[in-house]
């Protein structure tokens, strides 16, 4: 049943989801120091030391061109595995795990503001909609 379970997080007023199978862990920002990387793409926030592994961190606000927000106590780094490498994604807040039945999932509308290739679908619940991300496409299989 795990294929329709998603870690739901916020960027501004919108909610997004990543398939729970792609998520390794979720970390509070206050426990981690992000080191800037010279000449990295703008959306690369930097790198972190995660138990001895160097992990790049992608700021999804920058990647999606949403506009900046100060980091605060709600800010989280969701660690996902892409091509056998851990990558952190910086998000405003992690909410919950949502389970979507097949009838609650639909294809993304073609007129989506961010690149529709990033959106695998839309999950619909009474409390609202969640953009379900194809994290491989968001990160392009590579981060630089």
Based on the model shown, name its key terms:
five-stranded mixed β-sheet, OB fold (Dihydrolipoamide Acetyltransferase, E2P), globular, single chain, six-stranded mixed β-sheet, CheW-lke_dom, 144 residues, 6% helix, 48% strand, mainly beta
Account of the 3D structure:
Residues 3-144 form the CheW-like domain. This is Purine-binding chemotaxis protein CheW. InterPro entries: CheW, CheW-like_dom_sf, CheW-lke_dom. There is one protein chain. The chain is mainly β and 144 residues long. The protein has one domain (2-138): CheA-289, Domain 4 (OB fold (Dihydrolipoamide Acetyltransferase, E2P)). It contains two helices and eleven strands. The chain has a six-stranded mixed β-sheet. A five-stranded mixed β-sheet has the order 3-6-7-5-4. Strand 10 and strand 11 form a beta hairpin.
